[in-house]
UniProtKB/TrEMBL annotation:
Cofactor list: Zn(2+)
Keywords: Hydrolase, Metal-binding
Group of enzyme by EC: hydrolase
The keyword Hydrolase belongs to this UniProt entry's keyword annotation: yes
EC number per UniProt: 3.5.2.3
Species assigned in the record: Mesoflavibacter profundi
Family of this protein: Belongs to the metallo-dependent hydrolases superfamily. DHOase family. Class I DHOase subfamily.
Highest rank taxon of the organism: Bacteria
Name of the protein described by the UniProt record: Dihydroorotase
Molecular function as annotated in GO: dihydroorotase activity
Role noted for this protein: Catalyzes the reversible cyclization of carbamoyl aspartate to dihydroorotate.
PROSITE patterns: DIHYDROOROTASE_2
Length: 449
């Protein structure tokens, strides 16, 4: 049950480029009032004293893989959405490469049904495109889903869209926002053969960013952008991993008017190729973590607004799966619990401001996907709120990792900042590693004509 009224006192409220001291009154699911000082009008009000801690809008993660249905030995909607709210992520958009793949209306509706019963964070899904499902794509109402996901490289099953005629037809035919994974498959295959000839299956993992190279990324992303410009499609390029690709994007247009946008993921902002020596296949992602120079250029493009949003690409596998030799170890790793603490660590290091973190991880996903009444701390908006203590250190270890897979690439890392409270639609869902019995999650809705 929702508290009838909740009052957060003495908060540092981070919203729209400003930090203000004040109080937040929540009535039911919504933020009713924001003011310098609000007094409770009755004894029924549930009062939280933030004691000067920061309150942020709940983060919106526009790219996760929660593995349900079909791959639930790795993860499921319930376990990973719980980990998400512990990490300050109150809304997620999940990808279509499950089993069955989300490439039919029936499979999409099944996912919505599953999430309605088990999700701890607000949810929506991407619909998947293939070489042969245009008829299904055209059935989708753009108010029903977050968007369309196309794999232009590195996909499971038959989700690689590698027919140029089909690709152009999809771009021309849909009003859905098209999100793409861009790596050129021919380039990767040629590179892989060179190293397989030399090492067999046990390729040293530090060759991963050479196999899944800068060229592979740039060839694919530049082609996708060229096609979007030709057709007028609305394109969002997922998980940039190279500095070179950032040159393809514009920072002269307000986000709400952009037709071509970009995302960077936390692992490409945190790790570099120097970390393969210690982390091995645990940091094997597609696209690959690349050089320190790439990492620095990605951060610069994020701060310069060429890159519009931050996401996780949360993609868990079991530790046993990740422990295989290079060619057998799957790419991807779990991140939703630790992405915001990692970004706050970057704030402590002077790399990014808290206001910019909120812009890229909260505001901009809401603007980009036209999500209704979320991503901001505003009166009349849903009360998705995260309280953080910037000076309460904790170390990531097996006892506090919440992912079903039980491991994290951040294991052993000490973060200075801790998520202390997470409110989802006005309900307190999480407090200091404790979850409450009630789930408050709702299906995301979209303000689209």
């Amino acid at each position: 049950m929702y508290q009838k009224t909740t009052l957060i006192k003495n908060a540092k409220i981070v919203n729209e480029g400003k930090i203000v001291n004040g109080d937040i009154l929540i009535e039911g699911e919504y933020i009713a009032k924001i003011a310098e000082s609000i007094s409770p009008k009755s004894a029924d009000v549930n009062v939280f004293d933030a004691e000067g801690q920061y309150v942020l809008p709940g983060a919106i993660d526009d790219q996760v893989h929660f593995r349900e249905p079909g791959l639930t030995h790795k993860a499921n909607i319930e376990t990973e959405s719980r980990a998400a709210i512990a990490g300050g992520i109150t809304s997620f958009i999940e990808m279509p490469n499950t089993n069955p793949q989300t490439t039919t209306v029936e499979a999409l509706n099944d996912k919505f049904d599953r999430a309605s019963k088990t999700a701890w964070a607000n949810y929506s899904f991407m619909f998947g495109g293939t070489n042969d499902n245009l008829d299904e794509i055209l059935k989708i109402d753009k108010k029903d889903v977050a968007g369309l996901k196309l794999f232009l490289g590195s996909s499971t099953g038959n989700m690689l869209v590698d027919n140029p005629e089909v690709l152009e037809k999809i771009f021309k035919s849909t009003d859905l926002l098209i999100s793409v994974h861009c790596e050129d498959e021919a380039t990767i295959k040629a590179n892989l053969e060179i190293y397989k000839e030399r090492y067999g299956d046990d390729i040293p993992v530090h060759f991963h960013p050479i196999i899944r190279s800068e060229d592979a990324c740039y060839i694919s992303s530049s082609k996708a952008i060229e096609l979007a410009k030709k057709t007028g499609a609305r394109l969002h390029v997922f998980h940039l991993s190279t500095g070179k690709e950032t040159q393809l994007f514009d920072n002269k247009t307000p986000l709400k008017d952009k037709k071509i946008t970009a995302e960077v993921c936390i692992h490409h902002l945190w790790f570099s190729d120097k970390d393969y020596e210690n982390k091995g296949t645990l940091i094997k992602w597609n696209p690959a973590v690349k050089t320190e120079k790439d990492r620095d250029q990605l951060l610069k493009a994020l701060l310069d607004d060429k890159i519009d949003v931050i996401a996780t690409d949360h993609a868990p596998h079991t530790f046993e799966e990740k422990s295989n030799v290079y060619t057998k170890a799957p790419s991807g790793g779990p991140l939703v619990q630790h992405a915001l603490p990692a970004l706050l660590e970057m704030y402590h290091d002077g790399d990014i401001s808290i206001e910019k973190i909120v812009e890229k991880f909260c505001h901009n996903p809401a603007i980009l996907f036209e999500i209704e009444k979320r991503g901001f701390i505003k009166e009349g908006y849903y009360a998705d709120l995260v309280m953080v203590n910037l000076n309460n250190p904790w170390t990531v270890n097996k006892d506090n990792i919440l992912y079903k897979c039980g491991w994290s690439p951040f294991e052993g890392t000490t973060f200075k900042s801790r998520i202390t409270h997470t409110f989802v639609n006005g309900g307190l869902a999480y407090k200091n590693f404790k979850f409450y019995d009630t789930r408050y999650a709702k299906r995301l809705t979209f303000d689209r004509d």
